Amino acid sequence: MNSSVNNKTRRNALKTLAGGSSLVLGALAFPRLVQAQAEAIRIGFPVPLTGAFAAEAQAVVRGAELAIKEFNDAGGLNGVKAELLVRDDKLNPQEAATRTIELIDKDKANFIVGSVSSAVQLSVNNVTKQRKVIYNSISQSDTINEAKDWSRYTFHECLNPHMTAGAVARYAIPKMGKKVVFLTADYAYGHEMARGFQTAGKALGMEVLADIRHPLGTTDFSSYFPRILALNPDVLIVCNFGRDQQISFKQANDFGIKKQMKIIAPLLMHNGRMVDGHKAYEGIIGGTGYYWGIEASTPSSKRFNDSFKSLHKGLYPTDYAALGYAGVHNVLAAVKAAGTTDTEKVVTALRAVKGDLYKGNVYFRACDHQAVQSVLIVESKDRAVAANDQDIFSVVATENFDESKLRSCSELGHPA
Amino acid sequence: MQRTRTSRLAFFTAHPGGRPPVRLCRVYQQKTIDSYMELSFNLIAQQLVTGLALGSIYVLVGVGLSLVFGLLTIVNFAHGAFFMVGAYVGVFVFAKTGNFWICMVAVPLITGAIGMLVERVLVRPLYGRGIDYPLLLTFGLAYVMMDLTRMAFGVQGEPFEAPEALQGAVDIGIGMFPLYRLFLIAVTSVILFALWLFLEKTRFGLIVRAGARDPLVLRVLGINVSTVWLAIFGVGTGIAGLAGLLAAPMRGVSPEMGVPILIEAFVITVVGGMGSLGGAIAAGLLVGVVVSFTTLFRPELAEFSMFALMAITLIFKPNGLLGRKGLMG
Q1: What residue in A sits closest to B291 (Cα-Cα)?
Q2: Which residue in chain A is spatially nearest to B251 when comparing CA positions?
Q3: pLDDT computed for residue B25 by the predictor
Q4: Does A250 sit within 8 Å of B38, measured CB to CB?
Q5: What per-residue confidence (pLDDT) applies to B1?
Q6: In terms of CATH architecture, what is A37-159+295-373?
Q7: What confidence score (pLDDT) does residue A10 get?
Q8: Residue A184 burial (C-beta neighbours within 10 Å; 0-12, 13-18, 19+)
Q9: In what order do the strands lie in the sheet with A393-399?
Q10: What's the topology of domain A162-288+376-403?
Q11: Do B158 and A225 touch (CB under 8 A)?
């Protein structure tokens, strides 16, 4: 009996020894492979590949791919390459939270970048905050800057509504008239855009005749127009995003809205104008974080555009493609500067990232990690005067931001 | 009422910071609406016409779904996907021919043919197995169709313009109204009239109606019921496709365009009565007008109003406005 037990123990010990030595041998034989598997820098990228913002999601993925390629081509972090883990958040906060948890816990993502919706990014941020993982958000939000949602691991690469809408208001209200009506998508982003515009507009004597809210994903705006026409404002301010914006402009054009008033979009979408053409966008003024056309005066933009086009078969980068690029690039630049993927060290390095990557100088403000950057005011360009079919906007003004135009740190609840 | 609001506004402005800013905004918003918008006859009339035009789109999408359900007892969850396919077929045919009117003929024929193929290959084996089998099949099929479209055309959407002759707005006496939406009301009327003629005045229509009541008797009489059902599925999906084409110049073309339409079509079918053509027409126009007037007074409730109407209808008329009893059984 005893001998049998001893035999079994001996056999088990031999088995363990054999298994262990084969693993060691394997590791010695393929050191690169083991290292790559253990240490590849994984960037989790939850974006709405399906749903109303799918086109913008596709654009940010393209931008992120360029950032990953550039990092890897430059040798990575001492030979360790980066990889992008793209997941579909379906434009749904719960789905995004689940995908982010999976990315961190199961796929061992080191960092999270992404989201193309204000509500969804807050849900992602909630997860990364709890798990102490760096999240660089690439979609518009004011809330993410505020102390109650923010954490040391939260970075905001994108412009926020306060900056974007504020810049557009300062440009447009003195030129186009003071009586305005808002047509606002009824969710966080729309409300923040309208609030940003009103804050800046109030100082300029703007008079709000009505703030009309429409549900997210509205496909027919016809029933909003008789009232807007009856209110007869100088300007209609359309605070929505993606396909909502496309459809509202198209239908506003059909109803002859522009014959009676001007239209302004605090954020004027690149993809919408590309798809629907000049006619529906004629005369509409709006803000954007990036337009490729600034390459004529900005060398960093020219370099980014050229690299993007060469990776994506001649495709021009859109506003959101540039955000996807900057979001991932800056995290990887911080990894390189820190010389490690250790979160705390990368946070410190990312706070110090500063420079002219693609649109002039951008840096993260110390108190809330908001990327301080310029806002471009653009207007649709007629095909007849455009250089090519990608030449869709003229930049009519640029507002260079400094921290004084942002909401102050104490206003956001951060310690001074 | 006006006095109360003004005094509340005065209170809140006098106490800045005393209440959450949201409350202040709401009162401010109400005050501005009262002060600036006059409820003129023209505004009400325009809102009514807008509602009827919106309703005619609802009718068009509701009628195809109702037809297939009423005659085949199939709850077609892929109805929105056929709507989307119609728009994409339109984009394709327009790129080849450059003629919107050719699209008007080609789209229902091609979408209808795809529908018939689906009926023949996928739906037919499920007849006689209960209502949930084709329901689940078409539910899955909708996702497959949407993803195939994404793969073939991309996610960014496609541009689609109304023909030059139908662009712009015209004066209809109470104000300007888009010519294309008037055209849409006319086309919907023509389609509904043609459908009525087909079902009520032709020999084939007689067979269809008899088949809907009692397929067994029809078989005994030596009529091939399968062909009848195949044709009806083709007509239903063909109309969905045509609706997609007609909606394209207003809503744009994208792989997801059928998703909200499916919901709208179901609301119309439920309010009008499952399987009732007359009900679909009445419900479509009613929903259009209700949505339009809710948008005027409480825009944030516009989407909700459609479902509220559905709930109220179901409480008082469980079979819908003109529905028959027990069709789901």
Answers
A1: A223
A2: A247
A3: 38
A4: no
A5: 36
A6: 3-Layer(aba) Sandwich (3.40)
A7: 54
A8: buried
A9: A207-214, A179-185, A235-239, A262-265, A285-288, A375-380, A393-399
A10: Rossmann fold (3.40.50)
A11: no
**A211 → chain B, closest CA residue:** B29
Rounded-to-5 percentages of helix, strand, coil across chain A: 50, 20, 30
Test the B interface: residue of A222, A261, A390 with most B CBs within 10 Å: A222
Q: Is the pLDDT of residue B264 over 50?
A: yes
Nearest CB to A230: which of B25, B37, B169?
B37
DSSP B260-279: HHHHHHHHHHHHH-TT-HHH
Judged by CB atoms closer than 8 Å, whether chains meet at B155 and A243 is answered as no
Which residue, among A11, A314, A374, has the nearest Cα to A168 in the 3D structure?
A374
pLDDT tens profile A336-364: 999 999 999 999 999 999 999 999 999 99
Is the per-residue pLDDT at B23 higher than 70?
no
Contact in structure between A81 and A343 (CB atoms under 8 Å): no
Going from the N-terminus, what domains does chain B have, and what CATH number goes with each?
53-316 (1.10.3470)
How close, in Å, is residue B29 to chain A by CA atoms? Answer: 6
Structure tokens at A292: 């490729």
Pairing mode, if any, of strands A111-114 and A154-156? unpaired
For chain A, the structural domain boundaries read: 37-159+295-373, 162-288+376-403
Confidence of residue A416 (pLDDT cuts 50, 70, 90): low
Contacts of B53 in chain A (CB under 8 A): 222
State how far residue B39 is from chain A, nearest Cα, in angstroms: 9
Query: Inter-chain contact B157–A275, Cβ cutoff 8 Å?
Result: yes
Is the model's pLDDT at B37 over the cut of 90?
no
Q: Which residues of chain A make contact with B256, given a CB cutoff of 8 A? A: 50-52, 54, 243
DSSP A282-341: TT-EEEES--GGGGGT-HHHHHHHHHHHHHTTTPPP-HHHHHHHHHHHHHHHHHHHHTS-
CB contact under 8 A, A229 and B51: no
d(CA B83, CA A141): 35
Percent of chain B with pLDDT over 90: 56
pLDDT at res. A153 = 97
Higher pLDDT pick, B21 / A262: A262
Express each pLDDT in B179-234 by its tens digit: 999 999 999 999 999 999 998 899 988 888 887 777 788 888 888 888 888 999 99
Contact B156 A54 (CB under 8 A): yes
Q: Given CB atoms, is B238 within the 8 Å cutoff of chain A?
A: no
User: pTM for this structure?
Assistant: 0.82
Give me the residues of B, 171-200, that contact A with CB < 8 A. Answer: 175-178, 180-181
